Amino acid sequence: MTLLSIEGLGISFGGLKAVNNVSFGVKPGEIVSVIGPNGAGKTTLFNMISGVYQPGSGKVILNGEDVTAMSPHLLARRGMCRTFQNLQVFQSMTVLENTIAGYHLQEGGSVLADILNLPASRRRAKTAEAGARTLLKRVGLERAAEREAGSLSYGSLKRLEIARALALQPRVLLLDEPAAGCNAVETEEIDHLIAEIAASGVAILLIEHDMKMVMRISNHIVVLDHGEKIAEGDPTTVSRNPDVIAAYLGTENAAG
Hints:
Layout: E1 4-13, E2 16-26, E3 31-35, H1 42-49, E4 57-62, E5 65-66, H2 72-77, E6 80-82, H3 95-101, H4 104-107, H5 111-115, H6 119-138, H7 154-166, E7 172-176, H8 184-199, E8 203-207, H9 211-217, E9 220-225, E10 228-233, H10 235-239, H11 242-249, H12 251-255
Helix pairs in contact: 3-6, 3-7, 6-7, 7-8
């Protein structure tokens, strides 16, 4: 069963087609990576899928529902969450507080109940804290729960962002360069974490420039170049595709 379907997505900026007629699907528990040279349209595609941009053409179908151009917070309520290439962490808050913030859309309740600190509000807060601590243990940050987020290493901050996204209990998780700026050890930790999340049944859509990581963990790869899908398939098939090799190395180098 395909959980997320991308059907002919396209968008233009000032008459320039940034993404043109891109289609693919992601199943539960599957890791699908979107790769391509700089300027290929990967982040623009993510922005359309996640509701940041309104597509000029095509559809985004989530669990059978047309969610094209739906705002990110409504998509989150339907089970689609995203991390960004640039960190979106509250640096002066603790690691635990950052993770609890991810429960906001799931909590329900009223602002008045929170202001008055009513019993229902206290119960929700207690449940959110317990859930956040469980997630921090899952991503290997339980010992850093009371530290300010700004004191963490870059790789740990990346894992914190993933923990906060998981607090929304996503069925589809979009990860935009989760290993960018990480060293080899941090990349391996994130690699294992993504595989573990997928194994739990979450559909993963990934943008990543670390090709070793992409080839290790991906079930399926979609390749973009100048906004067009030029190839897709399993890692072995894609790595041997002459169009992919030419896109990354240039036609003359690929021929050589």
